[in-house]
Design a protein that fits this description.
There is one protein chain. The protein is of the alpha/beta class. It contains 10 helices and 14 strands. Strands 5-4-1-8-9-10-11-12-13-14 form a 10-stranded mixed β-sheet, with helices on both faces.
Length: 315
């Protein structure tokens, strides 16, 4: 599929080198366990989401972030080039590229430790990065880089663009940050945390989130995802029946594909369907970026599994 020159996604976020360690089960506190295998690959929420957007097809994808002046940074930059991603990466002298250590059990569960490295030094947009943000239809941010960066992003965006915040990992955010966001993507646990608990009542949680931002997407793992907005619309897309191998990067795959589909002008529901299908394929494979599917693969799953379908009803 040729790229649509009018469809642009700018992803502003973290870049890591992942070390994935496969184990029979995740170790308990104080326990030592032997690994089955260990592999290295590209990671970081920003980088993962950019790869997912680029593989979603037809969108021009720009990744804006920071790497260290080390071999890992150079290797990752080349990998982004191979994906067809435009990069505006700050090279932080004397700092290592971010790292993540991911333990993955046989049932696909994971635990992750992140060493942010150069990502912590990424606090302001360069003039070139600000221009890329201004040209984007959709801007996608996360919280593995300093939250203050969101103010730079919001100041550079065009009035017609959509600013999506995947507010992960869950961190304390001031009210002025929420004012910058058009659409929030969170999982169930993050949704409850940002809602201040909500006593497990999804209606209370959603109402509290919608008091902060106009639109919310909650990813529900094996239950799919749900969209809510301040107009009272609710769209639910169920998940595909896929045997989970590794859930690492599934949420990032969802976010990148979802953003790309919106940049192409697809309706919210269609973007959700594509993103859910892409995430399902990703969890069926090991790794983060290595597991992200092409849009051809996503289309094949959507055509072969007609069961997931969005439904509309009042909140």
């Amino acid at each position: 599929m040729s790229k649509d020159s009018t469809a642009r996604v700018a992803v502003v976020g973290s870049i890591n080198r992942d070390t994935s360690i496969r184990v029979l089960r995740l170790p308990r506190p104080g326990e030592t366990t032997l690994a089955i295998s260990a592999t290295q690959s590209g990671g970081g929420k920003g980088a993962n989401q950019a790869v997912a957007a680029a593989r979603a097809g037809a969108v021009l994808t720009t990744l804006i972030g920071a790497i260290g002046d080390d071999p890992a940074g150079k290797e990752l930059m080349q990998a982004f080039c191979n994906e067809g991603i435009d990069t505006l990466l700050e090279v932080v002298e004397g700092e290592a590229t971010g790292q993540a250590f991911v333990s993955v059990s046989e049932d696909g569960e994971n635990s992750i430790i992140v060493v942010p490295g150069a990502n912590t030094e990424f606090r302001r947009l360069t003039p070139q990065a600000a221009e890329a943000v201004a040209q984007a239809n959709v801007i996608l941010c996360q919280l593995e880089t300093p939250a203050e960066l969101l103010f730079d992003v919001a100041g550079a965006r065009s009035a017609q663009s959509l600013l999506i915040l995947n507010a992960a990992p869950a961190l304390p955010l001031g009210e002025t940050v929420w004012d910058l966001v058009d659409l929030l993507i969170v999982n169930e646990h993050e949704a409850a945390e940002y809602a201040g608990g909500g006593h497990g009542d999804i209606n209370v949680i959603v109402a509290r989130l919608l008091s902060k931002v106009p639109m919310v997407v909650i990813t529900l793992g094996s239950e799919g995802c749900a969209f809510f907005d301040t107009n009272g619309e609710h769209i639910r897309v169920p998940a595909h029946a896929i045997e989970a191998v590794d859930s690492t990067g599934a949420g990032d795959t969802f976010c990148g594909v979802f953003a790309a589909q919106l940049a192409l002008g697809e309706p919210i529901e269609e973007a959700m369907k594509a993103a859910v299908a892409a995430a399902a394929i990703a969890v069926s494979r090991p790794g983060a970026q290595t597991a992200i599917p092409t849009f051809k693969e996503v289309g094949q799953l959507l055509r072969s599994d007609a069961d997931p379908a969005g439904t509309h009803y009042p909140l």
